[in-house]
Amino acid sequence: YFDSTTFAASAVDMPDYTLVNLGADYQLTAHLKTYLSVNNVFDKSYENVIGSHYALLMVK
Questions:
Q1: How is the chain split into domains, by residue range?
Q2: Taking the CA of residue 21 as centre, how many other CA atoms within 13 Å lie in the half-sphere pointing to its CB?
Q3: Contact at 8 Å (CB) between 54 and 46?
């Protein structure tokens, strides 16, 4: 959070959340692949913060 009256930044605690993104691809030919993705499946409100930590899990 940035306070424009004092030009000070302060930490804001936000609730934990889980962001679910789905993706699938299909190889049509040897040289052509199609891909479909659905991001934020459960329509969660969230903020990405520079310098924040998060885990990435990819399953293939």
A1: 14-43
A2: 8
A3: no
Q: How far apart are CA 32 and CA 30, in angstroms?
A: 6
Could you tell me the pTM of the whole model? Answer: 0.53
Measuring CA to CA, which residue among 51, 54, 50 is closest to residue 17?
54
Question: Per-residue pLDDT tens for 30-52?
Answer: 999 999 999 899 998 877 766 66
The number of CA neighbours under 13 Å toward the Cβ of 32 is 2
Tokens for 15? 């609730």
> Would residue 51 be called left, alpha or beta, if left means φ above 0 and alpha means ψ between -120 and 50 degrees?
left
